[in-house]
Amino acid sequence: MAPAGYRRGVETAITTRVDGTTRTTRVDTRTTLLDLLRERLGNTSPKKGCDHGQCGACTVLLDGRRVLACLTLAVTTHDHDVTTADGLAPDGDLHPVQQAFLDNDAFQCGYCTPGQVCSAVGALAELAQGHPSHAGDITADPEPTRAEIAERMSGNLCRCGAYTNIITAVEQAARG
Amino acid sequence: MNTIGQDIPRRDGHAKVTGTATYAYETPADNAAYCALLQATIAKGQVTEIDITDALALPGVLTILTPGDVQKLTPVENTELHVLQDNEIAYRGQIIGAVIADTSDIARHAVELVHFTYHVDEHDSAYSPDRDDLYTPDKLVTGAPADTSTGDVDAAMRTATHTVDHVYSTATNHNNPMEPHATTALWQDDTLILWDSTQGVHAVRTTLAEVLDLRPDQVRVICPYVGGGFGAKGEPHAPVVIAALAARALPGRPIRLALTRAQMFVLVGYRTPTTQHTRVAADDTGRLTAIAIAATGQTARIREYVEHAGAATRMMYAAPNRATSHRVAALDVAVPTWMRAPGECPGMFGPEVAIDELADALGIDPIDLRVANEPDVDPESGNPFSSRNLVACLRQGADRFGWADRAPRRDGDWLVGTGVAAAVFPAFTMRATAAIRYDQGRYTVEIGAADLGTGAWTVLPQIAADALEVPLDQVDVGIGDTSYPYASTAGGSTGTATWGSAVLAAVETFRDKFGTDPNDGDEAEGTHDQGPFNEQYATYAFGAQFAEVRVHADTAEIRVPRLLGVFAAGRIINPRTARSQFIGGMTMGLSMALHENSELDPRFGHVMNHDFAGYHIASCADATDVRAFWIDEEDPHVNPLGAKGIGEIGIVGTAAAIVNAAHHATGVRVRDLPLTLDKLLPGLP
Questions:
Q1: For residue B140, is it within any domain?
Q2: Is the peptide bond before B674 cis (omega within 30 degrees of 0)?
Q3: Whether residues B310 and B277 fall in one domain
Q4: Quick check: is B648 catalytic?
Q5: Could you tell me if residue B593 is inside a domain?
């Protein structure tokens, strides 16, 4: 018999493309995309740093747009593309942003890094699409200046304090 | 060939930028079960009743650990590890049980269904330097005495022409590595395997074996990657014991336990608040006649940890009259621990601001004032310094930063100023053993070391390759596993110096035994013990921190557009990873200066702002230009490698430099951290 306070979870089948591979799972509708990836699909590239959308370590790309996997319910990704930092390097070939992080030592412990990388990829796409930010003239096409990059990367915390190098890495990636 | 001193990319870099490096919780394991913690919602008292009926009835719940219902643990010095031994509650948030379930969702849900009844005792969690129950600790965590005194500070203060006498304070800070503490635990065939996020696998094994009454060879601890630690993972804490007990309760089933961010504010330590009554006296030329600090802080009633904030004052500047003291209040609070540069980091705040205040009063440049008070020998011990290049750091930093012509200026709506502070951190080593083996043209170094992002995966092969005189790509390394020889914990900035010296010893033994043309399978070990010269020399790394601060003239918004540090830290093994450690420390120092403040509610005994929404740390836009440089320094006295350690000195002095720069910009002197705009606003011109 179900105990007091217990409400049975609702499960549903979803199909999500994760790093290019179609994955069909039955998930509790309360399960986050982050827990689906890490605990059900064995993809631990996105990290859990706070589970509250405050640190950015779980950042992934949803149809190319950066989202926080801990604030995204898994069921909402049905029929969508999820790309993690691992998926940005198919067959081990690093994405230019990943190579720039390596070149500039833009990390230390590495725990926030996959989220930083996905966030940088998303931020550069937003810049290319002309999305304005607080750091620049919102009437002009934004440029990937250090101030713009710092502003747009401030949702991803790094306790090792690699920010200066992260900005330089994203600048390098922006130059192509 | 020489790889030491060369800019070698990280060996674990590819795995980290793709996210394929496996941290403790992520260890591949079939059929894992998930553990969630039950925590006390009172600050002091006893659990009188526990009702687990509802939780156990939840489908997927496997078992629930409750007080008194687990194995009897062996008492150890670290009393926070005595989990679930009785019904006593010593601080709010203490672990009083754990749920193990088939999924993490179910485990978390079941936590809500366990009902505790308490007998509530009156608690006392409010720190104040004015409490009447402050006591003097027997000794500091370094082994040094709590109090020291030479000459007569009071008399010197009375007769000096210039004095500074103020109370400075630092806030409670939580280490908050990005990877919350986590363990995957497996009990199988009378053996416990812990994939644990730790700064020291051997320390975890030794302590867990003792507390669980197992032989050390029954416990294996594995940790290839650590998502930051900053001291919080320096000692095992209560959760890893829970993970072990859970694994023992479900033999053969891997148990995963990761702390939530909120739990990081109660279960794994923190830097205590400090109050620093600092006094300096000087003659007209700026020569100090007295320097003194009376440091006050807090500890937990169930375990003593005293922040040694007075230690740096003992050796930093020359003065004939000197005094330091430590007093502490034992409270019903969570247990404090090491946090990056314990002692020196908070302890170089008050004195380095006081020196700036003295320079101001004297009309002397703060760099010149520091140079004028350089001691010839360690004022405390009378021993010579093995090397002391503070002056070189200050001078080079001044040149690089553009210290000359530093008059405060106004740039539009912004008030702009600059500040400087000195940094220091002890250089010492611990004990470690390395093994080196030859097989098919390759050498493999094995040592139970840890890489917290510090670069051990990369620098230990450099040290080995140079000593072996072989190309770097012929050397493999294995770290983070108790199946490798014993290594000290990564702490006290001792890692590279200690483990590197052990590698040198292993190479020497190997070459002595097998020469330069070894056979497959040849293997040797070497051990490094504490540096032989430590007793004869005072061994410290030094640094100079420079900050530019901009304060908005109307809102007092504070920005730090530039930080620059120059350090003298012995031999630098890898400039790339070293620079990252320095700027990382400085960035954390900026974070401490401007943001970090764990606010404890004395009514309930808990930290209220226990997440990143409430406990702010520096973000990318806060730290856009942080630069680190170093002096080439040869110091044969610290250890065979000549490295002093660089993980902590970067955070020392940063907050003082920023506060001094803010004063330079605005004329407002803030003496308590963090430096927030409300403290500047009332005094703005």
A1: no
A2: yes
A3: yes
A4: yes
A5: yes
Contact A112, A101 (CB under 8 A): no
Strand-pairing partners, residue B184, are B195, B256
User: 3-state DSSP call for residue B260?
Assistant: coil
Query: Contacts of residue A32 in chain B, CB cutoff 8 Å?
Result: none
pLDDT digits (tens, 9 = 90+) for B620-629: 999 999 999 9
* pLDDT exceeds 50 at position B197: yes
Structural domain of B472: 429-528
State the smallest CA–CA distance between residue A105 and chain B in angstroms: 7
Q: Tell me if chain A has a CB within 8 Å of the CB of B577.
A: yes
Claim to verify: residue B403 and residue B322 sit in the same structural domain: yes
The pLDDT, as a whole number, for residue A142 is: 94
Kindly give the interhelix angle for A113-128 and A96-103, rounded to the nearest 10 degrees.
120
Is residue B105 less than 8 Å (CB to CB) from chain A? Answer: yes
Question: Which of B474, B505, B528 is the endpoint of a domain?
Answer: B528
Greater pLDDT, A6 or B313: B313
Q: Is residue B135 part of a domain?
A: no
Domain end, chosen from B212, B246, B265, is at B265
Interface touch B583/A166, C-beta < 8 Å:
no
Same domain flag for B658 and B554: yes
A164 in contact with B at a CB cutoff of 8 Å? yes
Residues of A with Cβ-Cβ distance to B454 under 8 angstroms: 108
CATH number for position B157: 3.30.365.10
| SS percent in chain B: helix, strand, coil, step 5 | 25, 25, 45
Among A99, A103, A111, most B C-beta atoms within 10 A, so best to mutate, is A111
**B620 CA: distance to closest CA in chain A (Å):** 5
Residue B530, pLDDT score: 76
Is residue B658 assigned to a domain? yes
Q: Which of A33, A37, A43, A48 is the best mutation test for B, with the most CBs of B within 10 A? A: A48
Tokens standing for residue B249? 């309760």
A93 touching B, CB under 8 A?
no
pLDDT of residue B534: 67
Question: A38-77, pLDDT tens digit by residue?
Answer: 999 999 999 999 999 999 999 999 999 999 999 999 999 9
Exposure of A170 by Cβ count < 10 A (0-12 exposed, 13-18 middle, 19+ buried)? buried
Q: How many residues does chain B have?
A: 685
The answer to whether the Cβ–Cβ distance between B20 and A153 falls below 8 Å is no
A59 to chain B: closest CA residue: B19
Q: What is the mean pLDDT of residues B576-588?
A: 98
Q: What is the mean pLDDT of chain B?
A: 97
Contacts of B623 (CB under 8 A, 6+ apart): A161, A163, A164, B560, B563, B587, B590, B591
Nearest to B353 by CA among B362, B365, B363, B366: B366
- Where are chain A's structural domains? 11-83, 90-175
CB contact under 8 A, B227 and A113: no
Asked if A47 and B23 come within 8 Å (Cβ–Cβ), the reply is yes
Q: What is the ipTM of this complex?
A: 0.97
pTM: 0.98
Task: Retrieve residue B297's tokens.
Answer: 């802080």
Instruction: Provide φ and ψ at A36, rounded to 5°.
Output: -60, -50
Tell which CATH classification among 3.30.420.40, 3.90.550.10, 1.10.150.120, 1.10.10.10 matches the domain A90-175: 1.10.150.120
CATH fold of A11-83: Ubiquitin-like (UB roll) (3.10.20)
Helix A113-128, helix A163-175: angle, nearest 10: 40
CB-based contact A163 B619, cutoff 8 Å: yes
* 3-state SS string for B88-114: EECCCCCEEEEEEECCHHHHHHHHCCC
Question: With an 8 Å Cβ cutoff, are A111 and B18 in contact?
Answer: no
Cβ distance of B625 and A160 shorter than 8 Å? no
Total domains in the fold of chain B: 3
**Token pair 């210039």 in the structure block, residue:** B162
